[in-house]
């Protein structure tokens, strides 16, 4: 297990942005629309964050369970990475003096078309709230028939406050086109 190029506060713009849902819709040739998730996190100050997606898909383990975790240091990050990707892929280097990594991973899914992504981060006086949205294909949506493990990684600015996760679920409406 080795580390790939470091992700630092100064280099955050080089982190690929994760927009899988739009890409999946475009690649599969159908239109997607959604009504959006209900708001469930408290009001507070919006926190800037960076999403990133590794080049390697997660290990497809039929027993994989959902995971919501925050890696605060290299050891926690290494353990989380190995749990999701095994030992054959490089662990992205993170500048933990500036960042921490919020991880939201769903259980193994029986089909493709299911996406999870953080869409909002809010800081309250006592904690950081991370809102993630699980998007699932609705009736009429075409999906690949393969095991998948949706996962989202979010770089959060370093803070001593605990992180609380909120996972919303919404269904896409698809029109074959």
Structure description:
It is a single chain. The chain is mainly β. The chain has one domain. Helix content is 12%, strand content 40%. The protein has two helices and eleven strands. A five-stranded mixed β-sheet has the order 2-11-9-8-3, with helices on one face. A four-stranded antiparallel β-sheet has the order 4-10-7-5, with helices on one face. A hairpin with a 4-residue loop joins strand 8 and strand 9. The radius of gyration is 16 Å and the shape is globular. It starts with a strand and ends with a strand. The relative contact order is 0.27. About 20% of the residues have low confidence.
Short description, anyone?
This protein is mostly beta strands and 177 residues long. The protein has one domain (3-176).
Features:
177 residues; five-stranded mixed sheet; 11 strands; 40% strand; globular
Indicate the topology.
Elements: E1 3-7, H1 20-28, E2 30-33, E3 45-46, E4 50-52, E5 67-71, H2 74-85, E6 91-94, E7 99-105, E8 115-123, E9 128-137, E10 151-157, E11 163-176
Parallel strand pairs: 1-6, 9-11
Antiparallel strand pairs: 2-11, 3-8, 4-10, 5-7, 7-10, 8-9
Task: Count the DSSP helices.
Answer: 2
> Largest sheet, order of strands side by side?
2-11-9-8-3
Topology as H/E string? EHEEEEHEEEEEE
Give the terminus-to-terminus CA distance: 43 Å
Count structural domains. 1
Characterize the biggest β-sheet: 5 strands, mixed
Any idea what the radius of gyration is?
Answer: 16 Å
Counting helices, strands and paired strands, the structural category is mainly beta
């Amino acid at each position: 297990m080795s580390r790939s190029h470091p992700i630092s506060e100064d280099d955050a713009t080089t982190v690929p942005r994760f927009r899988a849902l739009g890409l999946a819709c475009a690649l599969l040739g159908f239109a997607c629309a959604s009504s959006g998730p209900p708001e469930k996190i408290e009001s507070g100050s919006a926190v800037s964050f960076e999403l990133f997606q590794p080049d390697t898909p997660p290990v497809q383990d039929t027993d994989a369970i959902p995971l919501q975790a925050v890696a605060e240091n290299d050891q926690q990050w290494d353990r989380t990475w190995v749990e999701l990707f095994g030992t054959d892929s490089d662990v992205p280097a993170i500048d933990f003096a500036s960042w921490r990594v919020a991880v939201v991973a769903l259980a193994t899914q029986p089909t493709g078309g299911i996406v999870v992504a953080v869409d909002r981060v809010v800081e309250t006086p006592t904690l950081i709230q991370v809102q993630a949205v699980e998007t699932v294909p609705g009736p009429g949506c075409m999906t690949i028939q393969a095991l998948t493990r949706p996962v989202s990684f979010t770089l959060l600015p370093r803070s001593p406050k605990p992180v609380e996760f909120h996972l919303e679920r919404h269904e896409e409406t698809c029109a074959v086109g």
